[in-house]
Write a structure and sequence with these properties.
Elements (H helix, E strand, L loop, with lengths): L3 H17 L4 E17 L2 E19 L2 E7 L4 H17 L32 H16 L4 E20 L4 E17 L6 E9 L8 H14 L9 E7 L1 H15 L1 H5 L20 E3 L22 E5 L2 E2 L6 H7 L7 E2 L6 E2 L4 E3 L6 H5 L4 E9 L9 E12 L2 E14 H6 L1 E3 L9 E2 L3 E9 L2
Parallel strand pairs: 7-14, 13-18
Antiparallel strand pairs: 1-2, 1-4, 2-3, 4-5, 5-6, 7-19, 8-9, 8-13, 9-10, 11-12, 14-15, 15-16, 16-19, 17-19
Helix pairs in contact: 1-2, 3-4
Protein name: TldD/PmbA family protein
InterPro entries: Metalloprtase-TldD/E_C (IPR045569), Metalloprtase-TldD/E_cen_dom (IPR045570), Metalloprtase-TldD/E_N (IPR002510), PmbA (IPR047657), TldD/PmbA_N (IPR035068), TldD/PmbA_sf (IPR036059)
Family: Belongs to the peptidase U62 family.
Length: 447
């Protein structure tokens, strides 16, 4: 793996190759990661894995055609061939007037913001095993836990660099640390499983191994002897670990590429109030140590805090350069980058906390359900129709009244957003952070 400076140089050198091969413009991405993980089960080592990868991706423009091509061979001969092939492909590609680099006047300039995304602590495999064993042991110590699916710990480093032919060169290093435990409670046909998992840029930001294990065990035990729900409309309350998926559906529909294709349930709602006035949703790419923090986007534009929903109103679409050209706007710094052309996405996103505690949020619910797990992908991004399998806890007369399972929750996202209420228990350790959320009037299909 190259360091950040060398990675930037490698990406810039690939741009030079593309220009010499005849490209009118180009950008190049270098991406490398190295990770180690250890998994144990019932105190015994089950898996020890180390992986390393290094990859470059080149996008070139020739006339109105463009092409993207990548390689894991970083030798000089391979990169010369990569550049020549990319230019040949671009010349043969169909015309696309929207394909071009981001506007030069919008590129990030000057020193990049320091986001503290890398931890110097590099744990050894022995330490990873020790943490995995301790997390599993803490989970097995919870009364009612009868078996284990394992404990695991991991650590990794990633280097990303981007260079463009019109003047941008940048890169950054990130690290990751993960810890998890998954256990089974009960016996025979009544067994239930659950887990706890956390990830952080810095090891010091993870909870203790005992906390992870205990939480996994308590969650599994809480699912024992689930009942069934009657079908009908009722309030649905989303636990923070699943409520973030609602933000994911919103963001996908706000992507300019979906709007340009007319394939979004938000198509006619730009600037409209689709949430209650007290709902605010914010994207924070410059959050120190954030899981999705980044000093620039996938096209070299600066990133900045963006309010996606303000006082219940959408504030506009999320656009990379191609979507901005299609919609007649300007890029918003939300380009993402994998191995090909830029996509669109957000970074660290959250729903602002409300005024009520979770207990106050459910206090007036006579009959409802608190969802702790959603299953399947039954969401239509064009119509907003929503239907997912779920399990969780029943709410009776404002109190949690035991586990329930094998039911479906359904509605339409526009209507769901319009009835969304947020509690005050917002925590900051996920990429998408939300407090406990309540949506009234959803359809529950149970017995």
């Amino acid at each position: 793996m190259l360091d950040v400076s060398a990675a930037q140089g490698r990406a810039a050198a690939l741009i030079d190759r593309a220009r010499k091969a005849g490209a009118d413009a180009a950008d190049a991405v270098y991406y490398a990661d190295a990770s180690e993980s250890v998994a144990v089960r019932l105190g015994k080592l089950e898996d020890l894995e180390r992986s390393e990868s290094e990859h470059v991706s080149l996008r070139v423009f020739a006339g109105t055609g463009s092409a993207s091509i990548g390689s894991s061979d970083l030798g000089d001969a391979a990169l010369d061939e990569l550049a020549a092939r990319a230019v040949a492909m671009a010349r043969a590609a169909p015309e696309d007037p929207n394909a071009a680099l981001a506007p030069e006047d919008m590129l990030a300039r000057g020193p990049l913001p320091e986001l503290d995304l890398a931890d110097d602590d590099a744990p050894s495999p022995a330490h990873l095993r020790e943490w995995a064993e301790a997390a599993e042991a803490a989970a097995l110590a919870v009364a009612g836990v009868t078996n284990s699916q394992g404990g695991s710990a991991s650590a990794g480093r990633t280097v990303m660099a981007l260079a463009t032919s019109h003047g941008f060169v940048g890169g950054y290093l990130t690290t990751s640390h993960g810890l998890s435990a998954s256990v089974v409670a009960g016996e025979g046909a009544g067994m239930q499983r659950d887990h706890a998992w956390r990830s952080a840029r810095h090891r010091a930001d993870l909870p203790s191994v005992d906390e992870i294990g205990r939480l996994a065990g308590e969650r599994a035990v809480a699912r024992l002897a689930p009942g069934r729900l009657a079908s009908g409309p009722m309030p649905v309350v989303f636990d923070p670990r699943v409520g973030g998926s609602l933000v994911g559906h919103l963001v996908s529909a706000m992507a300019g590429s979906a709007i340009a294709r007319r394939a979004s349930f938000l198509l006619e709602h730009d600037g409209a109030r689709i949430f209650p006035e007290d709902i605010t949703i914010i994207d924070e790419p410059l959050r120190p140590r954030g899981l999705r923090s980044r000093p620039f986007d996938g096209e070299g534009l600066p990133t900045a805090r963006r309010v996606l929903v303000e006082n219940g109103r959408l504030t506009g679409w999320l656009m990379n350069a191609a979507a901005a050209r299609q919609l007649g706007g300007r890029p918003t710094g939300h380009a993402t980058r994998g191995g090909g052309a830029p996509g669109i996405g957000v970074s660290n996103t959250h729903i602002a906390a409300g005024a009520q505690t979770p207990a106050e949020l459910i206090a007036d619910i006579a009959d409802g359900v608190y969802v702790t797990e959603v299953i399947g992908m039954g969401v239509n991004g064009v119509t907003g129709d929503y239907s997912r399998g779920a399990s969780g806890l029943r709410i009776v007369n404002g109190q949690i009244a035991g586990p329930v399972a094998e039911f479906t929750i359904a509605g339409n996202l526009i209507a769901m957003f319009g009835r969304l209420r947020a509690a005050n228990d917002l925590e900051w350790y996920r990429a998408v952070n939300v407090p406990t959320l309540r949506v009234d009037g959803m359809t529950v299909a149970g017995d």
